[in-house]
Design goal:
The complex is a heterodimer. By secondary structure, chain A is an alpha/beta fold. In chain A, about 30% of the residues lie in helices and about 15% in strands. In chain A, helix 8 (about 330-340) packs across helix 23 (about 640-650). Chain A is globular and about 90 Å long. Chain B is of the alpha/beta class. Chain B folds into three domains: about 20-230, Rossmann fold; about 240-325, Ubiquitin-like (UB roll) (Roll); about 330-420, Up-down Bundle (de novo design (two linked rop proteins)), CATH 1.20.1440.230. Chain B has helices at about 20-25, 30-40, 40-50, 65-70, 95-100, 100-115, 130-145, 175-185, 210-225, 225-230, 265-270, 295-300, 305-310, 330-345, 350-365, 375-385, 395-405, 410-425; strands at about 80-85, 120-125, 160-165, 205-210, 240-245, 255-260, 260, 280-285, 295, 300-305, 320-325. In chain B, the strands form three sheets. Chain B has a five-stranded mixed β-sheet with strand order 6-5-11-8-9. In chain B, strand 2, helix 7 (about 130-145) and strand 3 form a beta-alpha-beta unit. Chain B is globular. Classes of the chains: A alpha/beta, B alpha/beta. Bound molecules: flavin mononucleotide, iron/sulfur cluster (4 copies) and FE2/S2 (inorganic) cluster (FES).
């Protein structure tokens, strides 16, 4: 576990040389800061100490035995030896033991070239092999559709087990058997878990490996590109490994992003859609009722001409434009330029969360990772990060495990995150507003009755929240209307006190916040879709899943009544099948740009491979259309120029430049916090409480592992590995009963 | 020499010594009453310090000092854990104690709990000792019925519960921190120290872990005073202790001896000499984990912590393994290597992989195919294991090997030669 760096220092000597290090640091970390690497396996910077591999032993003056540098805390005047014959011998000996039972099959190991065991053996190992006895063979086996286990290569550092216990809070891995016969595995040989694959990436050897990369290209032949995950709003940094125009893997092993080495199942295994054979790879234009391949010039000119015609015949507001929570900020910005060029106010996107209400009332900064990790009170209302925002869930349990923060959860669903809560308040459906009214000091009896909980629940929750000094409020999408307004300014509702409250809207899509920032919520999405074929006669839809809802048939009918439909997407969606023109877009892996994450931080998307087929990035296609429509588009073929225009037009983004992102990674947008009117909030809550249906029964069905986490969405469906695994049921989460039976992890 | 004073074994051999009635007739619970009614907890610790009692579980750590490490002002509950896992080859004294005198252990636990402000004692009993646990449970029930355990003991405001818990069959669970993990329902792996159990033990709370005999000795110390106990032994090794003698003697068994007692007397007087009038070859004086000594050393050494250290060994757990001239030290060491390999918990590299390699080497020498260089390899592997592991089990693997190679090189040489023959001309052997 990394120690907090303090400003105080102390001096130790390393092989006689004095070195100044932070007081209270772990020796191995203190030395690392000085650029001195102590070889290690079981040490991992954000996991509790293990001291089992014994690779990091050093000699410390006055101590009879060699000491592990991964558990030793530096003391002023400590004399340490790290490079003496004794230590070099010890390392040679330790590696010899680790390799004794190792199959020595590096030439066919997928980890070869980026294996810590291999690296250390090269640096510190013996040249000769003294072990001539028998090895204990263990054939490699699949333990999930995503992971296989080559048990004989293991060095028993238990990083995998700790990661599953502590990062994931899942606890699916265990050590089997004893002594020389032990292996890492699962009790019934198969993993029912969150399938994040983090256990694989932290493995320092080729023991746990990704099936998706089995006998894949040697790692050193891959081009590696750091970019941002395209699935959820947490915005993990991923490193795409590609060769030619194929993406082979998505990892986070270098740990440079806000997620460090963490990824979830989608971010790690859901890259298949990029090179899916089902991508639309060339522009299509409908002729005689059929879609036919066309050149870009023809297709774009056709689009511009038809949009112009409709606008001229029926007025600019007969044309609607839809952007997306999935595409880059630059893409949405260029899409908005098309609307401007036409002169239509009808621009929107399909929101996954009522951000307009949230942003209007949010009473403080959006909570960053640092806020979550340093919080003393975390309150989650109406959402389940465990299923919907995996990185958020990972971050928020860390201070809880360390005993530094208390988690409180209120929800009408038996959400999975409640497992770690000091207190869980089970609300009746729609009970959020009533609970918030109680927290705001309204009548406890009234609030409790409508919320479906005991008055004492509300009272104790209120005093717990008011006791916090650094409070993070996570507002889930079950909060609507008055409840959403109140939750997003909870700080104003609690008794005054010396505390900092930050907020996190539990949005879903990777660029939800960016889409809100760039496209705004001028015209509600529903009012556009509700007018298709009536007041709206032409639609330019970008990355919009028009027919994903229950009203798919009604939308189909409306789309049929349009004069002109142009769809820009990755796949032949149901809407694309009806379009007059289909424009093939590139995925995030094929372009540069930015996404804005759940904390309102802008992060770079970097191009890993050339556009597949003749696809083009959304920003490029849209700006070409805008130009053909006569707009004066300043940027020509430069995504950074698009982004510059965005920063000029949106003050929140003014300081979030590409240059800063290059050095800082994630740069938070600066948005004014609202100054909500307390009495208005309370009266809105009062009426919402009065309107609560107090006959609504509590939902007693616990959320299953994967219930939403494994819900794939369009891009996931086209990622074969993911889709196959979940469709045929080979990949499952642990059942509710099994999860309930687990011994809860004590603080670490 | 006069008949030595018996402290922990004084009730051994009395009919029904395991029952409360007989226990009470022989000074039973006198010390508990004295402690509760006339001593402050600090006084009890002081007496134990004065007694120079050192732990009987193996490491020989001064008991009074261990007790004084428990933070007095901690708001957390404190626990007394009795280590009754007795799994060390050659050691069977705790079993004799629990079978013959279970109440002395209960009384010792209660006094320790009183001294340390604890209200809960766990006795963690080796899983294979099922009947011993049954006996302990019966004694605990009796004690509860008569008000020696539970609420308001002997009418005072001191309350304390005593529980037994069966081990699940691993030698490593005798190591105190692995024991605590096991008691918590986790896998028995030793923990990282510091923190030591006295500060962060069971469920993260201050905990004293003591051996059965250590705790069972406490009532006598409280009754007769720490000085009286210390005077039974030597200045630095106070009192008496149990030894369990096994192997090639005429009368193997459990004996109580004052510390500083000559090993020669133990073998000849108490144990009736070496079987069949054979010559003594070697003794492992403190359970299988300690270095072996030669007959010559055994005949001159005294059984106290200091003297035994001078011949390069330890008193350990008091298990004395005696081997006469018919023993082959290579073979006997191989048995121990097998044991430690089997019991290695696998947590750390040198022990997990080193013990396996070591066993395979011994095995190859034993069945044929041994090479002269193997002896150097054994020494080298031992060096790579010793002092580098996470707990002391790995040292316990190496010490018997290195000491026996040093003291009985001819047995190893013979093993190599025999092994060569086995490979090349099996029929001749
Ligand atoms: C591998 C190993 C096994 C041990 N087994 C036992 C045991 O079976 N019984 C015991 O009392 N102590 C055993 N110990 C010693 C304990 O760790 C601990 O020192 C002892 O219980 C402390 O009690 P004491 O101070 O009263 O001796 C063992 C130690 C090690 C390293
Ligand atoms: S893939 Fe499964 S076993 Fe591995 S860390 Fe994730 S949840 Fe645990
Ligand atoms: S599988 Fe990998 S991470 Fe897990 S213990 Fe083995 S070497 Fe370590
Ligand atoms: S948590 Fe979200 S951002 Fe991170 S890998 Fe998973 S889907 Fe991608
Ligand atoms: S020395 Fe052996 S028994 Fe002790 S922790 Fe290491 S592997 Fe386990
Ligand atoms: S890194 Fe310190 S013991 Fe493994």
């Amino acid at each position: 576990m990394s120690t907090d760096t303090t400003t105080q220092t102390c001096t130790i000597t390393v092989d006689g040389v004095p070195v100044v290090v932070p007081a209270g640091a772990l020796l191995i970390e203190a030395l690392k800061m000085q650029g001195i690497d102590i070889p290690n396996f079981c040490y991992y910077h954000n996991l509790p100490a293990q001291a089992s591999c014994r690779m990091c032993l050093v000699r410390i003056e006055k101590m009879p035995r060699l000491q592990p540098s991964c558990t030793t805390v530096v003391r002023d005047g400590m004399a340490v030896e790290i490079n003496t014959p004794e230590i070099l011998d010890m390392r040679r000996g330790m590696l010899e033991f680790m390799l004794a039972n190792h199959p020595l099959d590096c030439p066919v190991c997928d980890r070869g070239g980026e294996c810590e065991l291999q690296d250390n053996a090269f640096k510190f190992g013996r040249v000769d092999a003294r072990f001539t006895e028998e090895k204990h063979p263990a054939p490699d086996v699949d333990i999930s559709p995503f992971i296989y286990n080559d048990a004989q290569r293991c060095v028993f550092c238990y990083r995998c087990i700790r990661v599953c216990d502590i990062w994931m809070d899942v606890g699916a891995l265990a050590k089997l058997n004893r002594g020389a016969h032990e292996t890492i595995g699962t009790f019934d040989g198969w993993l029912d878990c969150e399938h994040c694959g983090n256990c694989v990436d932290v493995c320092p050897t080729g023991t746990l490996l990704h099936t998706s990369y089995k006998f894949g290209p040697r790692p050193w032949t891959l081009d590696e590109t750091e970019t941002t995950c395209s699935y959820c709003a947490d915005g993990c940094r991923v490193r795409l490994g590609s060769r030619g125009d194929t993406v082979h893997r998505s990892i986070a092993r270098d740990g440079t992003g806000i997620n460090e080495e963490f990824l979830c199942v989608k971010g790690r295994y859901g890259f298949g859609y990029i090179n899916s054979g089902e991508r639309v790879t060339q522009p299509l234009v409908r002729k005689n009722g059929e879609l036919h391949p066309a050149t870009w010039d023809d297709a774009l000119e056709h689009v511009a001409k038809r949009l112009g015609e409709v606008s001229k015949a029926k007025g600019a507001d007969a044309v609607a434009v839809l952007g997306s929570t999935r595409i880059t900020n630059e893409g949405n910005f260029a899409v908005a330029e098309v609307a401007k060029a036409i002169g239509t106010p009808n621009i929107s996107y399909e929101p996954d969360y009522d951000l307009s209400t949230f942003m209007k009332s949010v009473g403080g900064r959006l909570a960053t990772k640092a806020d979550v990790l340093s919080a003393d009170v975390i309150f989650v209302i109406g959402g389940d990060p465990k299923e919907d925002q995996p990185l958020t869930a990972h971050h928020l349990v860390q201070p809880v495990f360390k005993g530094k923060a208390a988690l409180y959860v209120a929800s009408s669903r038996l959400v999975r995150i409640r497992k770690r809560a000091s207190k869980f308040v089970h609300l009746r459906p729609g009970g959020e507003a009533a609970l918030l009214l109680g927290l705001a000091g309204g009548s406890l009896e009234v609030a409790a009755k409508a919320a479906g909980c005991a008055p004492s629940d509300i009272e104790s929750l209120r005093s717990s929240l008011e006791g916090g000094r650094k409070v993070v409020v996570m507002v889930g999408s079950d909060c609507r209307g008055a409840a959403l307004e109140a939750a997003s300014s909870l700080g104003t509702l609690l008794a005054q006190g010396d505390r900092e409250v930050t907020y996190r809207p539990l949005v879903f899509d990777n660029n939800s916040i960016g889409a809100f920032d760039v496209l705004g919520q001028g015209v509600p999405y529903a009012s556009i879709t509700g007018s298709l074929g009536d007041s709206i006669s032409a639609l330019y839809a970008v990355g919009a899943d028009l027919m994903d809802g229950e009203d798919a048939e009604a939308v189909r009918a409306r789309l049929g009544r349009l004069d002109f439909l142009v769809v820009q997407d990755l796949f032949m969606t149901d809407a694309a099948l009806l379009a007059e023109v289909v424009l093939p877009a590139s995925t995030y892996a094929e372009q540069d740009g930015t996404f804005t994450n759940i904390a309102g931080e802008v992060q770079r998307v970097h191009k890993a491979i050339d556009p597949v087929g003749s696809t083009r990035p959304d920003w490029l296609i849209a700006s070409q259309i805008a130009r053909l429509l006569g707009a004066e588009v300043k940027y020509r073929g430069s995504v950074s120029a698009v982004y510059r225009s965005l920063t000029e037009s949106n003050p929140a983004y003014a300081n979030a430049t590409y240059v800063r992102m290059m050095t800082e990674g994630a740069v938070q947008t600066e948005r004014p916090s609202a100054s909500p009117d307390r009495s208005a909030l309370v009266s809105a809550l009062t009426s919402a409480t009065a309107a609560t249906d107090t006959t609504a029964r509590h939902n007693e069905v616990p959320t299953e592992m994967g219930e939403r986490l494994f819900h794939l969405g369009t891009i996931g469906k086209y990622s074969k590995l993911l889709a196959d695994a979940f469709e045929d049921g080979k990949a499952k989460g642990r059942s509710v009963e099994e999860e309930a039976a687990l011994i809860p992890l004590k603080s670490v | 020499m006069a008949e030595p004073v018996r402290v922990v074994s004084k009730r051994f051999g009395i009919p029904d010594s395991h029952t409360l009635g007989v226990y009470l007739e022989h000074d039973g619970y006198v010390a508990l009453e004295k402690a509760l009614k006339s001593m402050q907890p600090a006084d009890v610790i002081e007496e134990v310090k004065k007694s120079a009692l050192r732990g009987r579980g193996g490491a020989g750590f001064p008991t009074g000092m261990k007790w004084s490490f428990v933070p007095k002002d901690s708001p957390k509950p404190k626990y007394i854990v009795c280590n009754a896992d007795e799994s060390e080859p050659g050691t069977f004294k705790d079993r004799a104690l629990m079978e013959n005198d279970p109440h002395s252990l209960i009384e010792g636990c209660l006094i320790a709990a009183y001294a340390l402000g604890s209200h809960t004692c766990y006795i963690y009993i080796r899983g294979e000792y099922g009947w011993v646990q049954d006996g302990m449970d019966a004694a605990i029930r009796e004690a509860y019925e008569k008000g020696y355990c539970g609420k308001n003991i002997l009418g005072t405001d001191f309350s304390c519960d005593v529980y037994t818990h069966p081990g699940a069959g691993a030698y490593i669970c005798g190591e105190e921190t692995a024991l605590l993990n096991s008691l918590e329902g986790k896998r028995g792996h030793p923990r990282i120290k510091p923190p030591f159990p006295a500060v962060e033990g069971l469920y993260g709370c201050p905990t004293v872990v003591n051996n059965v005999e250590t705790l069972a000795t406490v009532p006598w110390i409280v009754q007769h005073g720490g000085d009286a106990f210390r005077q039974l032994g030597t200045e630095k090794s106070g009192g008496t202790r149990l030894v369990s003698v096994c192997g090639h003697v005429n009368k193997p068994g459990v004996y109580e001896i004052p510390l500083g007692y000559p090993m020669k007397d133990l073998l000849e007087k108490e144990c009736g000499g070496i079987r069949n009038g054979n010559k003594l070859k070697a003794v492992i004086p403190g359970g299988s984990s300690v270095p072996i000594i030669t007959a010559e050393e055994a005949y001159s050494v005294k059984l106290d912590f200091e003297s035994i250290g001078e011949v390069g060994s330890m008193l350990g757990s008091g298990g004395v393994i005696v081997m006469d001239e018919t023993a082959d030290i290579f073979e006997s060491t191989f048995r121990l290597v097998h044991f430690y390999k089997h019991e290695s918990c696998g947590w750390c590299t040198p022990c997990r992989d080193g013990s396996d390699w070591m066993e395979q080497l011994f095995d190859r020498i034993a069945i044929g195919g041994g090479r002269q260089e193997d002896l150097a390899l054994i020494t080298s592997l031992g060096k790579n294991i010793e002092g580098k592991s996470h707990c002391a089990l790995a040292d316990a693997l190496v010490w018997p090997i290195t000491s026996s190679m040093k003291k009985f090189p001819e047995d190893y040489q013979r093993a190599i030669e025999r092994s060569r023959k086995l490979l090349h001309e099996p029929a001749a052997v």
